[in-house]
Amino acid sequence: MKGYANPHLVVSPRELAPMLGGVGAIPLLLLDLRPPEAYAAGHIPGAIHLDLWGVSLIDTDPAPLKAFMWMIEHVLAVHGVDSATPIVVYDEQSGVRAARAFWFLEYFGHPSVRLLDGGFNAWIAAGLPVTRDAGPPPASDWTGAREAHTLATWKEVTTALGRGDAVVLDTRTDGEYTGTTVRARRGGAVPGAVHIEWTRNLSPSGDYKPAAELKEMYEEAGVTPDREVITYCQGGYRAAHSYLALRLLGYPRVRMYIGSWKEWGDREDLPIELPKQN
Question: Which end of the chain has fewer CB atoms surrounding its CB within 10 Å, N or C?
Fold first, then answer.
């Protein structure tokens, strides 16, 4: 209904509900990415809790990247991920926690992962059931297949700078982008980065905006589907959100720089700029 090129990447509460029980039920792994206290207070029936908050990578050289991804892969497997079962991820809204889990699962080559558009808030607003019951995740010995084209390292960001067929997308706040808010050794931005804060992907109700609105916003800023897009933020959460927005629009070449500003800003051998306020 929103005109996405890839509508299968999100699911509405009304679409999800019959998948979880009754005639339309299908085998499904539902992952709740909210904080543990929110999950304990009430969650969608059958959801497994998975909290990846604060687990970040700040060195995208080959060895630490490989070790970090092995750890994430293991955490996903012990929470029931396998290659045969479709997955739906959610948090409070169409938020950064769920989007980052979505990105990890795409990176590991999972064939069917969707985000609950509007999240738990939309589920509640639709009058759908909530429970406090919880059970263990299904057993899994899954391992993923790395999809390297979804990820960017600091070296790949460096090689994209100044290339006409590539654009770096800064999804942070105005203060972080201009360097007035400093969250690494240095403040500022990747040189030439286009700044569109991730919150601009969302409607007032917390779901993704329709395709026409997203398309206009990105294309007016020069983030066009003919260019490779590399998204970044502070630690790969907000960048994952904009990665998904562009995937919804059908952009064919989108990567997330998982080290993001914490790595880039800490490394004094990498260039920065201090842009003016948009």
Answer: N
User: Which residues are marked as active site?
Assistant: 233
Pick from 123, 115, 218, 225: nearest CA to 171: 218
Report whether 184 contacts 154 (CB < 8 A): no
pLDDT in tens, 53-77: 988 999 999 999 999 999 999 999 9
d(CA 167, CA 229): 5
Which DSSP string do the residues of 74-139 spell out, in sequence order?
HHHHHTT--SSS-EEEE-SSS-HHHHHHHHHHHHTT-S-EEEETTHHHHHHHTT---B----PPPP
Beta bridge partners of 230: 168, 255
Average pLDDT over residues 147-164: 96
Average pLDDT of the chain is 96
